[in-house]
Amino acid sequence: MPQDSAYIGVGEPVSRVNDALEKKGPMGEFAAMSRGVFTQVLSMAQRGLNPASNVDCARFALAAWRETRERQNLFLAEEFPALQFLACDALLSRRRRRIVLLVHNVSSKKRWLALSKLGLGRRVEHFLCLSPH
């Protein structure tokens, strides 16, 4: 990953991250990302936020946008809070950045409405889709 990059995602539960970093357990997604691949790593789990809560996702997305507004390269690891992050970026920034989005299913109504009809998909340079749909 190039310099000036950030990883933004839900991440692993904090106890698993600590175990992985101390080599007491399996390397989790967040632990692997925090090994220096990215310049900055932001995770909901690291902050004790619940990814199932729309309020927590929106709060995290806004905080992540503020903390990474100077970064040029972003990797968004989950649809939620990534869609909220893209909305913040669309509303608050005119600057184009290189954004990669890992998404599970772009054809579901929630994702399709946000990415296609609201135009948030235009802010994403590459989609990494984990589903054939």
- Helicity range of the residues? 25-40%
* Unreliable segments of 5+ consecutive residues: none
Q: Quick one: overall form?
A: globular
The secondary structure category is alpha/beta
Main-sheet strand order equals 2-1-3-4-5
Radius of gyration: 14 Å
Distance between the termini: 27 Å
Mean pLDDT over the residues:
84
Please indicate the percent range of residues in DSSP E strands (runs of 2 or more): 15-25%
Summarize the biggest pleated sheet.
5 strands, parallel
* SS field, number of helical segments: 5
Taken in chain order, the helices and strands follow as EHHEHEHEHE
In total, the number of strands is 5
Explain how this protein is built.
It is a single chain. The protein is α/β, with parallel strands linked by helices and 133 residues long. Helix content is 38%, strand content 17%. It is built from 5 helices and 5 strands. The chain has helices at 14-21, 29-33, 54-68, 79-92, 109-117; strands at 5-9, 40-43, 73-76, 98-103, 126-129. It has a 5-stranded parallel β-sheet with strand order 2-1-3-4-5. Strand 3 (73-76), helix 4 and strand 4 (98-103) form a beta-alpha-beta unit. Helix 3 crosses helix 4 (79-92). The protein is globular.
Topology:
Layout: E1 5-9, H1 14-21, H2 29-33, E2 40-43, H3 54-68, E3 73-76, H4 79-92, E4 98-103, H5 109-117, E5 126-129
Helix pairs in contact: 3-4
